[in-house]
Amino acid sequence: MKRVWAVLALVTILALVAACAAPTPQVIEKVVEKTVVVEKPVEKVVQATVVVEKPVEKVVQVTAAPANYGKVTILSTQANPVEEQEKMRGVVLKAFPGKPEFIGMEEPALIDRVLAEAKAGKGTADVLISLHGTYPTLLAANALLDLSDMVPNLKDRNIPEAFMKLGKLGTDKQYYIPVMQATYIMAANKKALQYLPAGANIDALTWEQLRDWGKNITEATKEKKLGFPASDRGLMHRFLQGYIYPSYTGGMVTGFKTKEAEAMWTFIKDLWQYVNPQATTYGFMQEQLLSEEVWVAFDHTARLVEAFKQKPNDFVAFPAPKGPKGLGFMPVIVGVAIPKTAPNPEGAKQMVRYLLQDEVQINILREIAFFPVTGVSYPGYVTVGIRMEGEAVSKQSASPDALPALLPVGLGAKGGEINKIYRDAFTRIVLKNEDIVKVLTEEGANLQKLLDETGAPCWPPDPASTAACQLK
Fold first, then answer.
1. Exposure winner among 2, 68, 192, 322, fewest CB in 10 A?
2. Residue-number span of the structural domain to which 166 is assigned
């Protein structure tokens, strides 16, 4: 029995030894196989990571690449002085994504060059910057590109609709986009504000309210504190052409001797009794404002600016008053256009958009003293005086009653003669008290003769004409 148990014990021990020793090579082999299987997908993951990195590199390259609209050649009749040209190149155009080339030139040279290139069918100029009066000649030669497709994308620039209409040049297409402006506004010493007529809004005065304001000041102070630049070096003719005539007749030329004009001159004579008697010696109204010889004045922004610069806390700037036909005012409109022969029309359109950006509009104001045409807010670094004028300019041009009257167009070398006619009418009617109808008849004949001799068609706000403009 003991032998049996001994044998069984021996068998059991051998079985245990066999169970522990025999399978060892198989276990090691399986572990190696698993290690190999695990390492292979790790290699695949590394390869997949490389694949993912490639599109990431492409996105970075696209984002980093700046837009470049190539060479854009600009011909401009504005900012012509050497120092202003340098400001255009070094400041205003500096951030344009391309290679702008700014070339200043006089209007006749610009017109000749664009017309020659239009005739040749091949051009070098991409962008034109000039006054409104330049463009009718170029349109007549079919030299301007239609920019109507740009208009929808410029809505957010808030350019006054009256200005955009001027850029259509009497057609239903947009041939230039307004880009900057200069103009004439009103200024007043804050001491005068207490004498405003009851219910009057200084940003929406009528001419009659201005007269009543002057009357109130005169009665309270015993002094005549209204001021106009009526000397030979003043701009009284612009007041007549661009402000009071359009406000009462709706035009500058055609209504020169109408019943509305007679009523207007009657009003001016009434107004003048509250104007400082030294007005016929005034040139730049900033001088009289600073000396307080006058409290309320009309003049060009450039001839008022020193008052706002030197004593910004003493003065307010505001739009010109309005009359029965609207708020007549004379903007010196500068427009940007593209010749049909532009070698880089897409770059040219990008330049138009660039010039209308807020920061560029402000740079134009700071560097060459033209005011924005867009609805831009004036930042803190713009001097208080300039900001005050600029806000008045914006209110004036954005008025729902705005009636922009352009500088005389098409008179050529005889442009000075039209100024004399208006000034002579003022001298005879207001200063010498001559009969209104008689003066308007005689000076109207002089005006018609000038228009016939030059063949100048009517310009805004008068209705367009194909032949020489005709008085009513």
1. 2
2. 71-181+333-376
Q: What is the pLDDT of residues 105-147, one digit of tens each?
A: 999 899 999 999 999 999 999 999 999 989 988 999 999 999 9
Q: Give the integer Cα–Cα distance in Å for 166 and 391.
A: 22
Helices (H), 222-333: 236-239, 245-249, 259-272, 285-291, 305-310
Q: Evaluate whether residue 63 is within a structural domain.
A: no
Based on the structure, what is the number of domains in the chain?
2
In a domain, 77, yes or no: yes
- Asked, for residue 359, whether it belongs to a domain, the answer is yes
Would you say residue 22 lies in a domain?
no
Q: What is the pLDDT of residues 305-336, one digit of tens each?
A: 999 999 999 999 999 999 999 999 999 999 99
Mean confidence (pLDDT) of the chain: 88
**DSSP one-letter code for 189:** E
Residue 309 sits in the same domain as residue 425:
yes
Q: Is the dihedral of CA 446, 452, 454, 457 positive or negative?
A: positive
Map 200-235 to HEC letters. Answer: CCHHHCEHHHHHHHHHHHHHHHCCCCEECCCCCCCC
